[in-house]
Amino acid sequence: MRDVCVVGIGSTKYGKSDLSARELMASAAQGAIADAGIDPDRIASGIFGNAFGVAEKQGHLGPLIMTALGLDTKPATVVETACASGGTAFHHGYREVAGGFSDAVLIGGVERVSMLDTLTATTYFAYGSDFTYEGGTGCSFPGLYATMARSYFQRYGATEQDLANVAIKNHENALHNPLAHLQKRITMEDVMGSMKVADPLKLYDACPFSDGAAAAILCDEKTAREFTDTPIFVEASARAGSIAALHDRPDLTSLPGAVLAGQTALQQAKLTVDQIDFFEVHDCFTIAEVAASEDLGLFKKGTGAKAATDGLTRIGSKRPINPSGGLKAKGHPVGATGAGQVVEVVKQLRGEAGGRQVENARRGLTHNVGATGGTVVVNILSRRS
Amino acid sequence: MADVESPRPVMSLKEQREELRNGNVVGYHCKACGEDRFSPMLRCPKCKSGKVERRTFSKTGTVVTYTVQSVASEQFLNETPFAFAIIKLDDGPTVSGWIPWIAKPKDLPMGQKVEYVASYKPGMMFEKR
Ligand SMILES: CC(C)(COP(=O)(O)OP(=O)(O)OC[C@H]1O[C@@H](n2cnc3c(N)ncnc32)[C@H](O)[C@@H]1OP(=O)(O)O)[C@@H](O)C(=O)NCCC(=O)NCCS
Ligand SMILES: [Zn+2]
């Protein structure tokens, strides 16, 4: 296996866009190509995450993106693992380069859903569940995480206020992220008074419906050094799964696939969690950030909610979580999210994160969850210097 | 293995829906370790045995956890607010179900006893006992 490096990153602004998925993805990709300074013709293939392409009545998105980039003869693949599609695209790009099949690969993710009304979007998103039993029985996506939140509250005595603190912190971080979807400071009163979506989760516990795309260029180390003296290394890229339907799981306060992918990634990188400086985790709902912080071993089981309330996850604390603003405030263009997490980690490791910079960031971890953990991707990146 | 048809599940989802419509809660049972499941299983996730059969479970159970849905998807638009719940059947596995007429958490204590009732809607509907 060869060492794999990220040599270029690009991202559109997250939010409501008038561009289609192909245009969004091509735009982020062009940003990454320019950032890398690579001749685009050296890119061997494209791998893109996209979850709800059919919402635009368009399948087979890959060639449309490549054609827009003038790379029409290069093969492209679109992968779908619900909200982990972008992370999965990164993982497969990593394998293609690490395995020696290609020296330069374009990875990314994209979603366009803002043309759907709330009802239609809620219906589409429910297709990401085990629809026969969950979505088809009336459960929305927020509903799945709400059942987990109620289990967590009952077992550990945490409160809605603890979860609110996750949202307040992520909105605060996003104020310093010009590409974030929601740039608005919120208070405890705002969160507690916001509309119930799926009790106990409210509007401000949820990520928004976002459009957006993110991209990265992956190269083997030798090729990477043609473009930069300080490439960002992929120290680990691990995946794992969980039973899809919540009702078949013995414990609803943890995602088994996240525990497994997290442990595998740390083993691959030969690191302990204490050696990671910050974490971009999948906070599609506030409870998901709490579960992630425990599944990855940042806090003991049952103490993650209190840690959020105690401010232990802010920038400047021991365990900064989601300096970008997370899915909650940076936004969640479903298929783009995992690729966007990589973009944020690279920015942080290069020291280019402005007002949300984690000081002396040397290593960062991404945690990207498909649905309720049916797919989980965990990556660790470092600047090795 | 020329031209040997691959094995079918012991019960199709279509057959399961028909059973539910007739008021029967029917799922899958592992003859090797006794694991019960409501979702399709061709090989037991617990003991990895392939000895799976269909089994009729009890209609009564207990609410393990739930949410009150205020924002619903299309098929349940006219049912809001209602509860989506994870329910442990008294004699059988844990299943997903929905409970009508639940407007706030006070209407549904954790541990509430419920019973399956056949309904015209997809999915399993339960009522408080
Ligand atoms: C919570 C939810 C139902 C809101 O629906 P919506 O269609 O975005 O609501 P609206 O468009 O009516 O938004 C109303 C306002 O709230 C804001 N808003 C929307 N979602 C928000 C969120 N999650 N947090 C904070 N503000 C939000 C909008 O910007 C809008 O503000 P404006 O009136 O100033 O423009 C929806 O965002 C949702 O279901 N989110 C979860 C998505 C999901 O499940 N993703 C997959 C997870 S893995
Ligand atoms: Zn078994």
How would you characterize the overall build of this protein?
The complex is a heterodimer of chains A (385) and B (129). Chain A is α/β, with parallel strands linked by helices and 385 residues long. Chain A has two domains: 4-116 and 210-233, Peroxisomal Thiolase, Chain A, domain 1; 139-205 and 235-382, Thiolase/Chalcone synthase (Peroxisomal Thiolase, Chain A, domain 1, 3-Layer(aba) Sandwich). In chain A, 36% of the residues lie in helices and 18% in strands. Chain A is built from 13 helices and eleven strands. In chain A, the strands form two sheets. A nine-stranded mixed beta sheet of chain A has the order 3-2-4-7-1-8-11-10-9, with helices on both faces. In chain A, helix 2 (61-68) links the parallel strand 2 (45-49) and strand 3 (76-79). In chain A, helix 1 crosses helix 2, helix 3 packs across helix 13 and helix 6 crosses helix 10 (286-295). Chain B is mostly beta strands and 129 residues long. Chain B folds into two domains: 13-56; 60-128, Beta Barrel (OB fold (Dihydrolipoamide Acetyltransferase, E2P)). In chain B, 7% of the residues lie in helices and 36% in strands. Chain B has one helix and eight strands. In chain B, the strands form two sheets. In chain B, strands 6-5-4-7-8 form a five-stranded antiparallel beta sheet, with no helix packed on it. Chain B has a three-stranded antiparallel beta sheet with strand order 2-1-3. In chain B, a hairpin with a 5-residue loop joins strand 1 and strand 2. At the A-B interface, helix 4, helix 5 and strand 5 of A face strand 4, strand 5 and strand 6 of B. The complex binds coenzyme A and zinc ion (ZN). Residues 83, 118, 122, 125, 141-142, 182, 197, 203-204, 206-209, 284, 332 of chain A line the site of coenzyme A.
